[in-house]
Amino acid sequence: MKGRMSDIETEIPTVIIGGGVAGASAAIVLAREGREVVLLEKEPQPSHKVCGEFLSPETIPMLGDLGVDPRALGGVPIQRVRLVSRFGRACADLTPAGTGLSRFALDRALLDVARGHGAEIRRGCTVRGYGPDVHGYRVETTDGDVSASRVILASGKHELPGIKVRGGVGRDAIGFKMHWDPGAAAMERLGSDVLMVLYRGGYAGLCAVEGGRLNLCLIAHKEHFRRCGGSFAGLLEWLTRRRPVLGEILGHARMLWERPVTVSNIPYGYVYSEALCGGRCDGEYHVGDQFGVVPSLAGTGMAIALVTGCAAARGILNGRGSHDVHRSVREDLEPTIRFMHRIHRLCGNPVLAEIAVAGLRAAPGLLKRLVAASRVAAPAGGAP
Ligand SMILES: Cc1cc2nc3c(=O)[nH]c(=O)nc-3n(C[C@H](O)[C@H](O)[C@H](O)COP(=O)(O)OP(=O)(O)OC[C@H]3O[C@@H](n4cnc5c(N)ncnc54)[C@H](O)[C@@H]3O)c2cc1C
């Protein structure tokens, strides 16, 4: 029975740390089967997150299975990928189409569904520490300590206090996101494309999202950011000058926020392995970016979050330990994450990126195959 023992809340069967795509999807799958689940989310309100907000085609049925229809939330169909480097340009149709939808809308909708199925969502509750105890796991939070039989770690790309498992994965990328009011001219120039712009040490993604907005999301190498004056405005000025296609669109648009949302130290290429934490704890399920951080240009981070979140929840429903669940998702996902990490590094080299874009342009169909290779399959048996 659940209750409070001194300052520790005891015997919660499953605690989920983090209410992004991965944590919320796990909460839905468990709660709709009648399982008791408590989700801890540090943000007191729905918030904007650094993300390209491009939902890849395979996520749409996965979300549908969870009870969320991105188009009903105002999501915008994205029918083409347009890749632009300094000298080159290549395009590929997306069939089926992807969807542009803000994380503000998506994460909120997923958590609403989880709550509707009976999951307890504790907002404004930050996890400060974590580790095994006699009951299973003890989670230290700003609202007191919680003891859980098992834990789903869904806190995103950064390490939680008490978990140091990431080793030397590169952390030199810094990310920004800004929403824009585009006006008709900018919308017309972008069309239903997701525009990917490559530049030295980074790339930018631009696509339409709900509410007639544009989302610009970009990453830059920290050193390059410093060379651009260490400000978003400086980086943007450099970028629109060097890649006029962006200037032509954003020149007609207006920033909707005073400053961008930012993230730093992005551990691209990270894949969780039990070996990294000494193989302890068979009730600790790593999902979403806590499982693996696929480079952003793949546009599949949210698909991985859905697949891993649902796989952990299904594993719990079927009595599978976390080592077993991690083994099967690793087999499915690690090749994609590693492959996209190689592409990400190639794009960081201006000469190789230029050769690659020229090749993609010369061989129509190759970009489509590359896009297909970045996709993530829903587990056998249909959507997660
Ligand atoms: C620049 C950039 C662009 C991207 N573009 C795309 C894209 O276009 N398409 C795509 O599919 N993917 C994209 N991604 C990847 C995608 O954003 C992530 O893979 C996805 O958000 C992972 O979901 P998650 O639920 O694991 O983590 P998150 O969405 O980060 O959610 C983690 C949650 O945990 C909470 N949390 C963190 N710490 C604590 C704590 N201590 N206590 C309590 N709560 C906590 C956070 O507040 C957050 O709500 C992009 C990533 C980056 C960096």
Quick recap:
The chain is of the alpha/beta class and 384 residues long.
Description:
This protein has 384 residues and is of the alpha/beta class. It has a domain at 3-77 and 98-169 and 267-345: FAD/NAD(P)-binding domain. The chain has helices spanning 21-31, 59-66, 103-116, 183-190, 222-227, 232-242, 244-250, 301-317, 322-347, 350-362, 366-373; strands at 3-5, 8-17, 37-41, 54-55, 76-84, 89-100, 120-123, 127-133, 136-141, 144-153, 173-181, 193-199, 202-209, 213-221, 254-255, 261-264, 284-286. The strands form two sheets. Strands 4, 5, 6, 11, 12, 13, 14, 15 and 16 form a nine-stranded mixed β-sheet that branches. Strands 1, 2, 3, 7, 8, 9, 10 and 17 form an eight-stranded mixed β-sheet that branches. Residues 1-6 have low confidence and may be disordered. The chain binds flavin-adenine dinucleotide.
Multimeric organization: single chain
Q: Which ligands accompany this protein? A: flavin-adenine dinucleotide
Sheet/helix structural class: alpha/beta
What is CATH's topology name of the domain at 3-77 and 98-169 and 267-345? FAD/NAD(P)-binding domain
Which blocks of ≥5 consecutive residues have pLDDT under 50? 1-6
CATH class of the domain at 3-77 and 98-169 and 267-345: Alpha Beta
Describe the global form. Answer: globular
Number of helical stretches of at least 4 residues: 11
Portion of residues in beta strands equals 25-35%
Amino- and carboxy-terminal Cα gap = 30 Å
SSE string: EEHEEHEEHEEEEEHEEEHHHEEEHHHH
Helix content: 25-40%
Compute the number of strand runs: 17
Q: What can be said about the biggest beta sheet?
A: 9 strands, mixed
What is the level-2 CATH architecture name of the domain at 3-77 and 98-169 and 267-345? 3-Layer(bba) Sandwich
CATH superfamily of the domain at 3-77 and 98-169 and 267-345: FAD/NAD(P)-binding domain
